[in-house]
Amino acid sequence: MSELDPTLPLTVDTANRVSETIFAPWLQQLGMRVEAIDSSGATLRLPYCEQLCRAGGMVCGQALLALIDTCMVYVAFAAQNQYGNCTTVSQNTSFVRAAKGQDIIARGTIVKSGRQLLFGEVVLTTADDAKTVATGSATYMLLP
Fold first, then answer.
1. Angle between the 12-22 and 61-80 helix axes, to the nearest 10 degrees?
2. In angstroms, rounded to a whole number, what is the distance separating the alpha carbons of residues 138 and 26?
3. What is the domain-level CATH number for residue 110?
4. Is 3 part of a structural domain of the chain?
5. CA–CA distance, 31 with 96 (Å, rounded to integer)
């Protein structure tokens, strides 16, 4: 992992380059990509991969939790309008339905951003038919 450069522009291209330098290798291996990032939040895609599936061909909950947590990192960047340090304080997830054979889209939004804490929500949907897979809420601490 390397240091974040807060002067980089908050764009999809730089967001994906940042992810290649700040996240642990196992997280990078999931293949998540930022598809959109702006002042209201971020959208990420988790490509379907059989290696992420449990018995029955369902994408495992651990991969979905990682997607929610990673999406919230980009929501924190959006809230700060820069690539800044942050850490998860809490996360609550509700699994709505199984996801099979499709990419998963994560849309994270800012609920409230204060000086030190950020509250956000993430909705996971299937890419092909936009059915809700899981919802999550998280609190992040924005670090100096």
1. 120
2. 22
3. 3.10.129.10
4. no
5. 23
What is the rounded distance in angstroms from the CA atom of residue 56 to the CA atom of residue 1? 35
R_g (Cα) of the chain, nearest Å: 14
For 47-86, write each residue's pLDDT tens digit. 999 999 999 999 999 999 999 999 999 999 999 988 888 9
DSSP three-state, residue 81: coil
pTM for the structure as a whole: 0.93
Q: pLDDT tens for residues 99-110? A: 999 999 999 999
Dist. CA 86–CA 105, nearest whole Å: 22
Residue 115 lies in a domain: yes
In-domain check, residue 93: yes
Q: How many domains does the chain have?
A: 1
State mean pLDDT over 21-44.
94
| Domain region containing 84 | 12-142
